[in-house]
Amino acid sequence: MREALNDPDLMKEKYNYYQYYGANAIDDVTPDFIAFSEENRKAALTYMEDYKVAPEVGIAKPVSSSDEGIIEAKLKEAVKAEEAKIIFTETDEDFEAAYENLQEITKKIGVDQLNEYMTNRVKEVKEELGL
What we know:
The protein is mainly alpha-helical and 131 residues long. The protein has helices at residues 8-14, 17-20, 25-35, 38-45, 55-60, 67-87, 92-109, 111-129. 5% of the residues are buried.
């Protein structure tokens, strides 16, 4: 990831940097934005070109008690447990190893199942809403 720190296009292509650093509009940005001061709101708006409003994603989120909801909760916990190990690595090799370890953990938890669910459910919601 270090090679992408000064290359925003590579960062977007290779790493999901919004999610990696813990920001996504569904869980973090919207509730926080509402409570922002006017100054912070203006600063946040400078990043709007990188965000797309997609209500269908929030609507499609699985119910927390469903299989996919449980997977989503476990994925969030895994990221919380592993992200500091990734961020505070000493070398590029250690970073890559820690990052790959998180990828393996998420596969075991069921990230592919959640991705398939969300892909299909978002399509359904978009059709229902005429988007």
